[in-house]
Amino acid sequence: MPDPRILILTATPVEAAPLVDRISGANAAGNRVTGMLGGTPVRVLVPGPGPVNTAMALTAVMEKTLPALVLQTGCGGGFAQAGINKGDVVVATEMIDVQSGVEPATPPDIVDALPFPVLKTPAGEITNRYPADIRLADTACRAARNAPMATGCGAAMGPIGSVVTITATDLRAQALFDRFGLCMEAMEGAAAAHVCLHYGVPFLEIRGASNIAGRRDRADWDIPLAATNAAISVCAFIAEWTKRPEACDGKC
Question: Dihedrals φ, ψ of 208, to 5°?
Fold first, then answer.
């Protein structure tokens, strides 16, 4: 059964808060909030951090109803090597499961890609890279660049790596950037993209940089800034997307 609402995924209540604050007629039930963003019906789902929580919650939704679009948002670690600064927004061009693969010959190295697909789609086989719909990503990035984010914060497009082990050293961050050219790392995007591809639902990932990937220093993180800029960018994208619904007419 189709659902005209946009489903927005955020891992934690802290990340969801700036978005929920912008919903009119909000109706909360458990880890879900429904209402309107502008004139668009949305459902915000907060399944908890990590790929397992995300895949379980999203699959449960999809088995009952297929949303018009799924948006993964929240915070992540930006890669300074890609020119990302704290507070910047990244729109994913692809979601990469950087930890699914074959053990490398040199254990500290990044894993090699799996020798078999984890998902087969009409567009090709997926091992660890989930391509984004570039039309959606381009619309989202342009909308973010024109949105009233915090002073000095910008928006970029690029790969977002999905991890289950948070990067905590500069050496690891450099290795990930060298292999994948990442703009950001987070935890849930590849899992959500996998489920959406399986059910044929358009997917987009938009995140704010709460910190710079590398040496871990929680005192230097700014989750409220990142979550707010991400929420502003999500709202700007939805406002733009609703002007051209043909962008997601089943051909995404």
Answer: -105, 145
- The CA distance from 97 to 71, in Å, is 18
- Residue in 180, 90, 165, 164 with CA at minimum distance from that of residue 130: 180
Q: Model-level pTM greater than 0.90?
A: yes
**Residue 242 main-chain phi, psi, to 5 deg:** -70, -15
Residue 189's domain spans which residues? 2-248
For the chain, which ranges sit under pLDDT 50? 245-252
Determine the Cα–Cα distance for residues 134 and 199; give it in Å rounded to an integer: 19
pLDDT, tens only, 39-81: 899 999 999 999 999 999 999 999 999 999 999 999 999 999 9
Q: Name residue 15's amino acid.
A: E
Residue range 185-214, pLDDT digits in tens? 999 999 999 999 999 999 999 999 999 999
Q: What are phi and psi of 160, to 5 degrees?
A: -115, 125
> What 8-state DSSP symbol labels residue 64?
T
CATH number at residue 223: 3.40.50.1580
* Residue owning tokens 């609703």: 242
Amino acid at 203: F
Cα radius of gyration rounded to whole Å, the chain: 17
Amino acid, single-letter form, for residue 27: N
